C-alpha cells in the first residue's frame, strides 16, 4: 500500500491483522489529517475497524495505527507511549515523512498499489 502527501509517495507494509485488512478494503481513501502533539496526524475513518488494541510502548516514526475503532493515526516522530493502539502498518522508509506532512493539517491519500 502507499500513502501520498502532496507530490511525495511513501510505501507502507500492511500488518497481518483483521483491522489492517479492513482498512485496506476501504482504499483508496483521502483524509485531511490534523496534527496532534507535534508527533502525529489523525482522522476519523468513514467506517469503524475491528480493533485489537495493545500498548506498544515505543511508537516509531512511520507507524500507522488505529486508536479506538475509528481513528487513524500516522506517527511521524518516535516516542514512548502509554496509550493502546491496533497496528495497521508501517511506512517502509519514513525519512522525509515529517517534512512531507508539515505542520497543521495534511491531506493524505492512502491507496493500494
Structural description of this entry:
This protein is mainly beta and 113 residues long. The chain has a single domain (2-111), classed as Cyclophilin (Beta Barrel), CATH 2.40.100.20. The chain is built from two helices and eleven strands. The strands form two sheets. A nine-stranded antiparallel beta sheet has the order 3-11-1-2-10-7-8-5-4. The longest helix has 8 residues, at 18-25.
Q: How many domains in all?
A: 1
What's the number of helices? 2
Main sheet strand line-up: 3-11-1-2-10-7-8-5-4
Low-confidence stretches: none
**Overall mean confidence score, pLDDT:** 95
Distance between the termini: 6 Å
CATH class: Mainly Beta
Shape label: globular
Hey, roughly how much beta strand do the residues contain? 35-45%
CATH architecture: Beta Barrel
Short description:
This protein is mainly β. The protein has a single domain (2-111), classed as Cyclophilin, CATH 2.40.100. The chain is built from two helices and eleven strands.
Strands, helices and their partners?
Elements: E1 2-5, E2 8-14, H1 18-25, E3 29-33, E4 35-36, E5 40-44, E6 58-59, E7 63-67, E8 71-75, E9 79-80, E10 86-91, H2 97-101, E11 106-111
Antiparallel strand pairs: 1-2, 1-11, 2-10, 3-11, 4-5, 5-8, 6-9, 7-8, 7-10
Amino acid at each position: 500500500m502507499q500513502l501520498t502527501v502532496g507530490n511525495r509517495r511513501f510505501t507502507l507494509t500492511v500488518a497481518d491483522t483483521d483491522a489492517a485488512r479492513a482498512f485496506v478494503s476501504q482504499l483508496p481513501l483521502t483524509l485531511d489529517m490534523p496534527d496532534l502533539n507535534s508527533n502525529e496526524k489523525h482522522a476519523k475513518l468513514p467506517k469503524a475497524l475491528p480493533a485489537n488494541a495493545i500498548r506498544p510502548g515505543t511508537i516509531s516514526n512511520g507507524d500507522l495505527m488505529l486508536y479506538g475503532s475509528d481513528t487513524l493515526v500516522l506517527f511521524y516522530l518516535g516516542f514512548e507511549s502509554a496509550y493502546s493502539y491496533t497496528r495497521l502498518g508501517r511506512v517502509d522508509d519514513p525519512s522525509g515523512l515529517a517534512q512531507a506532512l508539515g505542520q497543521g493539517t495534511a491531506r493524505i491519500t492512502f491507496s493500494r498499489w
